Amino acid sequence: MDSLEEFIAHAVALEEDSAVRFDDMADSLDVHQNHEVTDLFRKMAHYSRLHLAEAQKLAEGMTLPHIKPWEYKWPDKEPPETPGMDATHYLMTPHHALVMALDSEKRGHDFYAALAATHENPRIRELAQEFAEEEAEHVALLQAMLLRYPAPPPDWDEDMDPPVSVD
Amino acid sequence: MDAVVAKPQDYKSDLKPIWCPGCGDFSVLAAITRGLAELNLPPKDVALVSGIGCSSRLPAYSTLYGFHSVHGRALPVASGLKLARPDLTVLSVGGDGDGFSIGGNHFVHACRRNVDLTYIVMDNSVYGMTKGQASPTTQADWTGSKLTPEGPGVAPFRPLEMALSSGATFISRAFSGDPMELTRQVCAAVQHKGFSFVHVLSPCVTYRPEQKGWRELVHGDFTEPYTDRRDAFLRLLDDDGFTTGILYQGAAAPFQPMPRATQSVADLGDQFVI
C-alpha cells in the first residue's frame, strides 16, 4: 500500500464488502425464518455502512485508484472484516452471529494496527491508528453484548424436523 | 454504463436466494456480479443460462437476461443464444450433476465446438436438490446416500481432463471460499474468445458437510496458464482435484456459423415439409 489514496480505497472496500456480506447473510437467514439473527446481521450491515460513509468522507477531494477485486492487499483471501459465508447455519443463534461479528472486528483491528505499527507514511500510520482504535471499541462493544448471549447447548443445531434430509 | 459506475449490486435482483445458509453458491453469485461490475458490462448485454439444480437457480438472483432451462441442456441453449446474438455476453451456470451427467454429452460437444461463451460449474459432488444422491464427481467410496450404501463404486468424472480432451480453450478451477480468485477467473473467462470453462469447488453444507474441510485442501498451484495442451495434460496427471488457478488458455478461433442471407420466419417455415 503505497499512497494515502490506496489506503483509503482499502478502507472503503473493507467496509463496503463487509456491509454487503452481512446483508447477504441476513437475507439467507431471513429465508429460513431466523429473524433474531437476521436482525443482528442487518444491524452489522448498517454499522458497516456508517463506517463506509466515514471512509468515503475522508476520500472527498481525492481521486481513489481503481483496484481490481483480486489486487487489494489484504492479509488473507477476503477483506478482513468480511465474515465467512460458510459459517452460517439456519439454526444459528445470536451468540454465533455475535462471535462472527466479533471475529470480523478483531481482524479489522489487526489489519489497521499492523499498518499503524509498520507503515512508512506518517499520515497512513496516523489514520490506521485511529481506525484501529475505533475497531477496538467495536470489539469491546461486541464482547459486552456477548455476555447477554451465552453459548447455546451443544445440540443447538439438532433439528427433529429438518427442512432437508437425506432420502 | 460509464467506467467505475457499475457496482456488483447492479447485477443482483431483489429475490433472496433460497440456498442453504453456508452454501458455496452464494460466493459464486457474488463473484459473477463482482466480475461483471469489474468488466463494466451493462446487465442488458449479458445473458445467464442455467439447467436444473440448486446452482441453476442463479439466473433468478441476477438482473441479467436469464433462462432457467431444461436439465442438462443449459449449454445447447447458451450456444444457440450466442450464435443468434453474438453481441451478447453469454454465461452458462449449473451443477456437477446437471453438467457432467445429464448434460455430459452437451458438455463434451460444447468444449469441442468452442462457441464464445463461459460455462461455470458449481461442483459439490452431490445432487443436492433431490436430497443427496451421488453425482458424477462423487468419490467411489462415498456412503452418504441410502441409494448407494456401499458408495457409487465408480471413479469420479474428471472435468478438467474431459474439457481439455474435448477442445475447450480456457480451463480453470476455483474454490468458492476464495471469492477474489474466483472473480479473477470469471473475468478472464468472460474476456477469453472461445469456450471457457470454470470449475468451481462449491461445498454443499447440507449433504456433504465434510466439504467445509476443502478450505484446508485447496492450493493455488495452477500459477500460469499453459498454452500447450500437452503441458496441460501432463500437469493434470499430478492434479489432486484441489489445485486452483487457470490451467490452460489456447488460441483456437471460436466457432462461427456459416454466413447466410437473412431469412424471415416464413422463409424458415417453408423449409419444413408438413
TrEMBL record, chain A:
<dbReference type="Pfam" id="PF02915">
    <property type="entry name" value="Rubrerythrin"/>
</dbReference>
<dbReference type="InterPro" id="IPR012347">
    <property type="entry name" value="Ferritin-like"/>
</dbReference>
<dbReference type="InterPro" id="IPR003251">
    <property type="entry name" value="Rr_diiron-bd_dom"/>
</dbReference>
<dbReference type="GO" id="GO:0016491">
    <property type="term" value="F:oxidoreductase activity"/>
</dbReference>
<dbReference type="InterPro" id="IPR009078">
    <property type="entry name" value="Ferritin-like_SF"/>
</dbReference>
<dbReference type="GO" id="GO:0046872">
    <property type="term" value="F:metal ion binding"/>
</dbReference>
<feature type="domain" description="Rubrerythrin diiron-binding">
    <location>
        <begin position="6"/>
        <end position="81"/>
    </location>
</feature>
<protein>
    <submittedName>
        <fullName>Rubrerythrin</fullName>
    </submittedName>
</protein>
<feature type="domain" description="Rubrerythrin diiron-binding">
    <location>
        <begin position="98"/>
        <end position="146"/>
    </location>
</feature>
UniProtKB/TrEMBL annotation, chain B:
<feature type="domain" description="Thiamine pyrophosphate enzyme TPP-binding">
    <location>
        <begin position="52"/>
        <end position="200"/>
    </location>
</feature>
<dbReference type="Pfam" id="PF02775">
    <property type="entry name" value="TPP_enzyme_C"/>
</dbReference>
<dbReference type="GO" id="GO:0016625">
    <property type="term" value="F:oxidoreductase activity, acting on the aldehyde or oxo group of donors, iron-sulfur protein as acceptor"/>
</dbReference>
<keyword id="KW-0560">Oxidoreductase</keyword>
<dbReference type="GO" id="GO:0044281">
    <property type="term" value="P:small molecule metabolic process"/>
</dbReference>
<dbReference type="GO" id="GO:0030976">
    <property type="term" value="F:thiamine pyrophosphate binding"/>
</dbReference>
<dbReference type="InterPro" id="IPR011766">
    <property type="entry name" value="TPP_enzyme_TPP-bd"/>
</dbReference>
<protein>
    <submittedName>
        <fullName>2-oxoacid:ferredoxin oxidoreductase subunit beta</fullName>
    </submittedName>
</protein>
<dbReference type="InterPro" id="IPR029061">
    <property type="entry name" value="THDP-binding"/>
</dbReference>
<dbReference type="GO" id="GO:0045333">
    <property type="term" value="P:cellular respiration"/>
</dbReference>
<dbReference type="InterPro" id="IPR051457">
    <property type="entry name" value="2-oxoacid:Fd_oxidoreductase"/>
</dbReference>
